[in-house]
């Protein structure tokens, strides 16, 4: 045991912290890009069976569902996380699962390094072991505990969790284990992508005055966007935002020609009170203002993708229960916050299941070459999850 791991092993929570850490490492060591989750699904299901879950199954999407059954008469608590990870890019040893000194990351203890450590294989491990600990200790539950480790989350369509919900998955309360730095989160902004297309007229590049350059038209739109687009703010979710994430023009540079087509993808993060229709109307208004200034300006707008916003009642029962479980384990309730990215909890919330966020790791390391999770976060998260089960389901 390196980097002081031994101090984390003594606990009264019904699980072996060393086994939990080893399982986290094992999950990180299994490559599991979206649509390639077969092997990791088998590993999660196998660990659930070792921990004597009452029911375990893998569906055709490679979602894993494990159940600890109660005797009845109590609420069902759902824990949710995903088993796929983002691309590794130029990350070194992305599937090593090494335990490193956390000093370089500003953490005083050991950390587990690798792709998916913070997003979110550590949380999957903590959830699996937390529910298993309740079973191991023989604690009598009234309500059921469900642990779902879903596939295809990184594709940002909610395909894995939606498949479960569409096929009858139900609960009274839920927790998303996406990284929250061990604070309690109540949601996130929504994400919408618009394709903006400007339409010009081709001419020979040696005689640009004979055409209308679609790239220059797009530049006018972008300048007006930055000048005129005001953004609302939210108490918990923060300020709405926009950015351009892609740009292309045609016919292209193979021949010297003024482009008559330019398109961008505009990423707009929106608040729960905003709708796609409202946001499209704002874009068209900006297009109208540019057209008033330049009669040659011509543009179109297409809706590409919508990922719903999420906002759970900060005073609701699940948020209050997670805060209380955190206080009992960590000494205080922590801070209410929100993710800057979207999570599958939004689909759970939209299905009528109140969902709060609590997970190990710092979300700002997700998808980065420094992806890691502190060891003590993993163990603490499992303790909080166990305490939450006792609080809601006993």
UniProtKB/TrEMBL annotation:
Locate the coiled-coil region(s) and give their ranges: none
Keyword terms, alphabetized: Hydrolase, Metal-binding
Pfam families membership? M20_dimer (PF07687), Peptidase_M20 (PF01546)
Spell out the PANTHER family in the cross-references. ACETYLORNITHINE DEACETYLASE
Q: Which GO terms describe its molecular function?
A: hydrolase activity; metal ion binding
Respond yes or no to whether keyword Zinc is given for this record. Answer: no
InterPro entries per the UniProt record, alphabetical: Bact_exopeptidase_dim_dom, Peptidase_M20, Peptidase_M20_dimer, Peptidase_M20A
Q: Which organism is it from?
A: Desulfotruncus arcticus DSM 17038
Where would I find the Peptidase M20 dimerisation domain in this sequence?
186-293
Task: State what protein this is by name.
Answer: Putative selenium metabolism hydrolase
